[in-house]
């Protein structure tokens, strides 16, 4: 029996701070011990109370740092890594001008194999241990990414993009080929070690009704896969969807009519939803991936956090980078932009709400809260260690506000956490662990 321990200030969530108070949702131990056995959580508690029980086990100490569950990125594009930060366009023009030509390169397995480790290194150096990833339309891109994630033992969800119209010919599959290729990938990868599959029609405009019907068939045949797509990001996109599907009662209804809206569905963006669509997402227990850096970068709009988390119709919510429309792989930077999106609408978005979405909230959105998201006993030990003084300005900021080096109260922690989110990035991530093993260190 091999045990090991990690001593640090430890923060995780036991409930949702959008709906219950911080004292009921935040679990904070200023001097904590996280004990692992075979990569899973065996115990979490006060160091002073537990130390007698674990005399002799190896303990890694992170004084004056903050240990949190690994971050969960609910929506990101593998083939857009090399085109992040492309100038000047909004969604539909940006896709044509920059994204489609770039995604074409992923036809070549050797190129995919070159980019996959770069992409995964970016996730890990930013503290992201689980991501929901769109591949390209080519199955090779999905194989390549799954191979790399499996090598690193990451709990990752990936899908081949299904796209049979309104894209260049070199990037289109057919309804049939998308079905057979997706099915082969599901049979090969879904449930292998920590890997899971998402059926991934790109968005309604690039799929024929036949292709959406095939997507539904895949979900029926493999009911524990996910449905992952884009929804109501940009005004011109929403208008286009209405023209393409004139019988539908709006954008979400297109997916709904094809049986694609359910509790394993993840919809990225949702910045242009109607009230009825918010209600329908709540009713069906579908999840939204909130992508603030992307929504600001493409000028898409402001996500209504308050409406998504309304008490009468709560929607499962997570944070997402959406690289390459998103401008950072960091969920700290993403949370910082989410705060500004809230500010522009006179809404509140607390640092605890932000870190909940990046951890347990994301896990719940994926129905993986029995496996990841916090440090409950038996969960897979994916975690990150943050340095609230990672840069000179952060050191000065936090020195000013904390007499002692480690916050004691939730209030002190909230203060330090907020500035860590707003000023933080990959330099803030001291270490990233996957199943208790170190996979990135500064
Ligand atoms: N909608 C359809 N495809 C995409 C994409 O690649 N990125 C974003 N942000 N929105 C999309
Ligand atoms: Zn996207």
UniProtKB/TrEMBL annotation:
Binds 1 zinc ion per subunit. It catalyses: guanine + H2O + H(+) = xanthine + NH4(+). One of its GO terms (molecular function) is guanine deaminase activity. Pfam families: Amidohydro_1. The keyword Zinc applies. The keyword 4Fe-4S does not apply. NCBIfam families: guan_deamin, PRK09228.1. Belongs to the metallo-dependent hydrolases superfamily. ATZ/TRZ family. Catalyzes the hydrolytic deamination of guanine, producing xanthine and ammonia. This is Guanine deaminase. It comes from Microcoleus anatoxicus PTRS2.
């Amino acid at each position: 029996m091999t045990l090991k321990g990690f001593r640090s200030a430890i923060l995780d969530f036991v409930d949702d701070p959008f709906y219950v108070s911080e004292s009921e949702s935040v679990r904070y131990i200023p001097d904590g011990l996280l004990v692992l056995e075979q990569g899973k959580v065996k115990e979490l508690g006060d160091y002073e109370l537990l130390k007698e029980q674990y005399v002799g086990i190896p303990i890694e100490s992170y004084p004056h740092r903050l240990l949190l569950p690994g971050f969960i990125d609910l929506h990101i594009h593998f083939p857009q890594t090399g085109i992040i930060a492309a100038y000047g366009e909004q969604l539909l023009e940006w896709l044509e001008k920059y994204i489609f030509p770039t995604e074409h390169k992923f036809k070549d397995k050797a190129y995919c194999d070159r980019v996959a480790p770069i992409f995964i290194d970016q996730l890990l150096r930013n503290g992201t241990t689980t991501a929901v990833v769109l591949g390209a339309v080519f199955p090779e891109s999905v194989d390549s990414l799954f191979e790399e994630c499996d090598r690193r033992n990451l709990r990752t969800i990936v899908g081949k993009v299904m796209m049979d119209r309104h894209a260049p010919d070199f990037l289109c599959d057919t309804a049939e080929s998308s079905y057979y290729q997706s099915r082969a990938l599901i049979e090969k990868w879904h449930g292998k070690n920590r890997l899971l599959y998402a059926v991934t029609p790109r968005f309604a405009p690039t799929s024929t009704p036949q292709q959406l019907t095939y997507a539904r068939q895949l979900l029926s045949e493999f009911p524990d896969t996910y449905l992952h797509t884009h929804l109501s990001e940009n005004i011109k996109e929403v208008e286009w969807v209405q023209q393409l599907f004139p019988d539908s009662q709006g954008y979400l209804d297109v997916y709904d009519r094809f049986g694609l809206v359910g509790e394993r569905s993840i919809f990225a963006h949702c910045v242009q939803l109607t009230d009825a669509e918010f209600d329908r997402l709540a009713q069906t227990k579908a999840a939204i991936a909130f992508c603030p850096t992307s929504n600001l970068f493409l000028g898409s709009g402001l996500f209504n956090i308050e409406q998504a988390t309304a008490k009468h119709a709560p929607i499962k919510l997570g944070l997402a980078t959406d690289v390459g429309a998103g401008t950072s792989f960091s969920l700290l930077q993403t949370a910082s932009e989410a705060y500004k999106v809230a500010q522009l609408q006179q809404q509140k978005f607390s640092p605890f709400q932000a870190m909940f979405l990046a951890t347990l909230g994301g896990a719940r959105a994926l129905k993986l809260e029995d496996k990841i998201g916090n440090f409950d006993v038996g969960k897979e030990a994916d975690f990150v260690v943050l340095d609230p003084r990672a840069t000179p300005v952060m050191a000065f900021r936090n020195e000013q506000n904390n007499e002692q080096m480690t916050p004691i109260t939730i209030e002190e922690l909230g203060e330090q956490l907020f500035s860590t989110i707003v000023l933080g990035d990959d330099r803030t991530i001291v270490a990233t662990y996957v199943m208790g093993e170190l996979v990135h260190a500064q």
